[in-house]
Design a protein that fits this description.
Beta-lactamase, 2 domains, single chain, alpha+beta, Lipocalin, eight-stranded antiparallel sheet
Length: 460
């Protein structure tokens, strides 16, 4: 996602295991039921569009509201912000330019930038284009001079001059090619550099090199009149409408909008079901592998690859302020799924998308939010230390509860009951250990994530 990857304890983790379960694609009726439950029971999202490809059979389902201007029904032509799925497009552009001989994978990114732009190095080792495409540049997830004037559209005012100023002042902490870190900054820089090399805007490059050959007429940054009329309105985790995002400088990290029908064409090409001159470049994006901080999850170029249940799933999720998206496919069964939500329900959306590729990955649990006495919420406010360098700061406001982890954004948590709360941005939960039936503030909380229970002591 653009604005969250290191959420709570370091990012989303899929439910992993070494055993094998037969992957099964849901029937259309079953898929519709799953979507209906996520909207009506879990209230995770306002609306969902899903497409599953299984053995040449395409299954479509949609449920919920588009909240478009004319409240048109959601379908596979509804337009969504796809967020960080844009990184896969950027990686494919890079691979295509390598295949064409326009750049080399080992080229320093500085070679594609204006001569007066300083790019940091580590012990004289430059950042290469391949380092950027594989999340291995040594750059941080976001630039330190990113300070949005409008939090509802946070990337809109970050300029090329801001980017160049950050690069000039930054000191790398890791040698390029040796350290994985999720890379909004890195992919934004890669997209910018490739566009300069091609002599056109990033959007023009995507259209000419990817969209036109694949017939993807509804994948753009700038919305046509037709796309605007089919745009599903985005919502935050409380199902409140939010503004769309504009990402001019870091476009390669997450600026694209698309539809399920267009993304289906893209996945058909990735699976080899659609003849395309992009096939060698797509193969290149899957040929390079690096480990991540998560077990049995590697990165290629843009893509993530999960290797559990004797399967290999290639996937990418995306998220902006009001959307959560997923595309993925199995290298073994060739089953694929697309899942587009017009709400910021990142964690459940990712887990459901992977489940639709291989049912051995468990469905995300349906969690129902309930109201809690504001006085109880206020009693939870405080700072809880889970480790010397990791503290959760809890804040209550207006009958809502918010939690901020060290060096991470603040997110709302939702109550299942008086003591158990859950995130919607990631698969994580918090339990407050109340004493004396709640007469005194809790001394501890427990964070549940990635199969671990981590207690935190309240700081005085």
């Amino acid at each position: 996602m653009l604005h969250r990857r290191a959420v709570v304890l370091g990012g989303l983790a899929l439910s992993l295991g070494a055993g094998y379960a037969r992957a099964q694609a849901p029937a259309e009726e079953s898929l519709s039921t799953i979507l209906k439950e996520r909207v009506d029971i879990g209230r995770e999202t306002t609306g969902l569009v899903a497409v599953v490809l299984d053995g040449g059979r395409r299954i479509d389902a949609a449920y919920g509201r588009s909240d478009a201007a004319d409240n048109r029904a959601l379908d596979a032509d509804s337009v969504f912000e796809i967020g960080s799925i844009s990184k896969v497009f950027t990686a494919l552009l890079f691979a295509d330019m390598v295949v064409r001989g326009e750049v080399s994978s080992g080229d320093p990114v500085a070679k594609l930038l204006p001569a007066n732009v300083r790019v940091p190095e580590f012990q004289d080792k430059p950042i290469t284009l391949l380092d950027l495409a594989t999340y291995m540049s040594g750059l941080p997830r976001m630039p330190s001079n990113f300070a949005a004037k409008d939090k509802s559209n946070p990337f809109a005012d970050y300029t090329v001059e801001n980017l160049y100023a950050f690069l000039a002042d930054h000191q790398l902490r890791f040698m390029p090619g040796t350290h994985y870190e999720y890379a909004n900054l890195g992919f934004g820089l890669l997209g910018h550099a490739l566009a300069l090399r091609a002599g056109m805007s990033y959007e023009e490059l995507v259209i000419s090199r990817i969209c036109a050959p694949l017939g993807m007429d509804d994948t753009r940054i700038t919305l046509s009149g037709s796309m605007q009329s089919r745009l599903a309105r985005g919502h935050n985790s409380r199902l409140e409408p939010v503004a769309n995002w504009d990402i001019p400088t870091l476009a390669g990290a997450g600026a694209l909008r698309s539809t399920a029908n267009d993304l289906f064409k893209f996945l058909e090409m990735a699976l080899g079901n659609r003849s395309s001159p992009l096939a060698p470049a797509m193969a290149m994006t899957l040929g390079e592998r690096h480990p991540t901080e998560r077990p049995r999850v590697e990165v290629g170029l843009g893509w993530f690859l999960s290797t559990s249940y004797k399967d290999e799933i290639v996937w990418k999720d995306g998220g902006t302020g009001g959307y959560a998206t997923f595309v993925g496919f199995s290298m073994k069964s060739h089953r694929a799924s697309i899942l587009l939500s017009n709400t910021a329900d990142y964690g459940p959306n990712l887990r459901l998308g992977v489940h639709l590729v291989n049912s051995a990955y468990a469905l995300p649990k349906l969690r129902r939010a309930v109201p809690v006495d504001p006085a109880v919420l206020a009693s939870y406010a405080g700072r809880y230390m889970l480790a010397p360098t990791f503290v959760l700061t809890v804040r209550a406001e207006g009958g809502r509860l918010f939690v901020q982890a060290t060096a991470q954004p603040e997110y709302e948590v939702f109550a299942e009951d008086d003591t158990n709360f859950f995130y919607r941005v990631v698969d994580a939960q918090i339990t407050f250990d109340r004493l004396d039936n709640g007469a005194t503030p809790p001394l501890t909380l427990t964070l549940h994530q990635n199969g671990r229970d981590r207690p935190g002591r309240r700081l005085q």
